[in-house]
């Protein structure tokens, strides 16, 4: 494979900036162009729900950098790709490429019906600023969704003194972290004033503009602030007709190749294709995966072997001010082995051993380096 004369990266966030940096680290001296739709330029999303909602000064330290890499940045939105002619079209012009890295991430899943106004979500810096402003004078809040993001938004409401109720059919984080940790998390959140409403089916948004949540039995819960935290969808609209995306996103192999010559993908927009039928294809839209795939995609563009795999099973979140770090396969089920501490006391090191010899390690409110957790999990 010859080194491409130019690399085009669409998506100026974690996966895209990681890929650009890795290309330079690997010695690529050719032209790199990055197309990004957000006027703010690249920034890190995890602090949006952990600090930005609580602290206006947190906006200033979200940077992901591209300015030291000698890349051209075009702040515009890609609208299509012609993989035969190797051209990406955008709102402001078109961009030819030798190699393309798709890194357009995901957007918040919305559940408002067409025409229903005022749905609030959290995906971008603008979303976070809007929510933060609304929290300032809200006397009550409802968060729809008890996943990672919903629990973080609820934690921010509680920290700011806004009474908050989390509505979901599932118990908090139970689907990924299992019943044992879900119970500990729920107890901690309740102690900090977060209330839970266990819906017996899918809830919808009530009011226009949105002012509450309608439960399957017709009951409507209302609040000053209603935030939908119902997952995210890959940003693939611009790839329509190219054959590069399906309902799950952009399918990639272990080299982050899409299978279309010259086209690679990384980050939240992707899913790893089934591995010889043994692994169901699944999205894993987390920070560490976007970094791993940005690096792998860059190496593959240059025809080099990647330094690591395109997946990384490190994940972290925060529940009512308590940090939870996880290394290892998810979901976990059943009782863990407590290696240290006790979740009830807000500090524990827990492991779930699997039949295949691997472990999942969780540092629950405990300061432990990721390297130490990786060593325990392997
Ligand atoms: C509030 C929040 C908190 C999070 N917390 C955690 C956490 O604690 N731990 C964790 O592991 N993960 C967390 N994540 C997930 C993590 O941030 C993502 O996995 C990561 O941002 C993925 O990076 P990405 O570059 O693939 O996609 P994104 O960050 O989604 O970036 C994609 C970029 O592409 C741009 N784009 C989209 N379409 C186009 C187009 N057509 N043309 C040009 N540009 C386009 C978008 O505007 C965006 O800037 C969190 C996410 C959010 C939203």
Overview of the molecule:
This protein has helices at 14-25, 46-52, 125-136, 148-159, 174-191, 287-301, 370-377; strands at residues 6-10, 31-36, 72-75, 78-82, 87-90, 93-96, 99-102, 106-108, 141-144, 164-168, 195-198, 204-206, 212-214, 220-222, 225-228, 232-234, 245-246, 249-252, 263-265, 270-272, 314-319, 322-327, 337-342, 347-353, 359-364. Helix 1 (14-25) crosses helix 6. It is of the alpha/beta class and 378 residues long. Strand 4 (78-82) and strand 5 form a beta hairpin. The chain has 3 domains: 6-107 and 233-301, FAD/NAD(P)-binding domain; 110-228, FAD/NAD(P)-binding domain (3-Layer(bba) Sandwich), CATH 3.50.50; 321-377, no CATH class. The strands form 7 sheets. The protein has a 5-stranded parallel sheet, with helices on one face. It is globular and about 60 Å long. The protein is built from 7 helices and 25 strands. The longest helix is centred in the middle third of the chain and has 18 residues, at 174-191. 22% of the residues lie in helices and 28% in strands. The two termini are 35 Å apart. It binds flavin-adenine dinucleotide. Flavin-adenine dinucleotide (FAD) is lined by residues 10-16, 35-38, 45-46, 48-49, 77-78, 103-106, 122-123, 149, 235, 238, 267-268, 285-288, 290, 315-317. Flavin-adenine dinucleotide is lined by residues 10-16, 35-38, 45-46, 48-49, 77-78, 103-106, 122-123, 149, 235, 238, 267-268, 285-288, 290, 315-317. InterPro entries: FAD-oxidoreductase/Apoptosis (IPR050446), FAD/NAD-bd_sf (IPR036188), FAD/NAD-binding_dom (IPR023753). This is FAD-dependent oxidoreductase.
């Amino acid at each position: 494979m010859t080194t491409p004369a130019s690399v085009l990266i669409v998506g100026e966030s974690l996966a895209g900036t990681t890929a650009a940096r890795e290309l330079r680290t690997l010695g690529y001296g050719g032209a790199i162009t990055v197309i990004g739709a957000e006027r703010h330029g690249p920034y890190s999303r995890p602090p949006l729900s952990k600090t930005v909602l609580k602290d206006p000064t947190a906006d200033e330290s979200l940077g992901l950098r591209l300015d030291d890499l000698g890349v051209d940045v075009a702040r515009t939105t890609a609208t299509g790709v012609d993989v035969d002619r190797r051209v990406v079209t955008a709102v402001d012009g078109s961009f030819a490429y030798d190699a393309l890295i798709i890194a357009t991430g995901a957007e918040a899943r919305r559940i408002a019906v067409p025409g229903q106004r005022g749905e609030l979500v959290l995906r971008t810096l603008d979303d976070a600023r809007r929510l933060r402003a609304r929290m300032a004078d809200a006397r009550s809040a409802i968060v729809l969704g008890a996943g990672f993001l919903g629990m973080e938004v609820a934690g921010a409401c509680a920290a700011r003194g806004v009474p908050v109720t989390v509505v979901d059919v599932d118990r908090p984080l139970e689907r990924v972290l299992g019943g044992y940790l879900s119970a500990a998390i729920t107890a901690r959140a309740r102690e900090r004033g977060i209330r839970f409403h266990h819906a017996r089916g899918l809830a919808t948004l009530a009011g226009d503009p949105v002012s509450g949540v309608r439960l399957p039995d017709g009951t409507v819960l209302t609040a000053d602030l209603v935030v939908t935290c119902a997952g995210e969808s890959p940003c693939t609209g611009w790839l329509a007709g190219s054959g590069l995306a399906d309902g799950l996103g952009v399918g990639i192999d272990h080299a982050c190749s899409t299978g279309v010559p010259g086209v690679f993908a990384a980050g939240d927009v992707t899913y790893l294709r089934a591995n010889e039928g043994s692994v169901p294809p699944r999205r894993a839209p987390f920070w560490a995966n976007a970094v791993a795939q940005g690096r792998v995609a860059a190496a593959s563009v240059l025809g080099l072997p990647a330094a690591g795999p395109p997946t990384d099973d490190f994940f972290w979140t925060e529940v009512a001010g308590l940090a939870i770090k996880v290394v290892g396969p998810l979901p976990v089920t059943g009782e863990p082995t407590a290696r240290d501490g006790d979740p009830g006391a807000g500090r524990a090191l827990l492991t779930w051993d699997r039949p295949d010899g691997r472990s999942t390690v969780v540092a629950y409110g405990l300061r432990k380096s990721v390297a130490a957790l990786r060593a325990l999990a392997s």
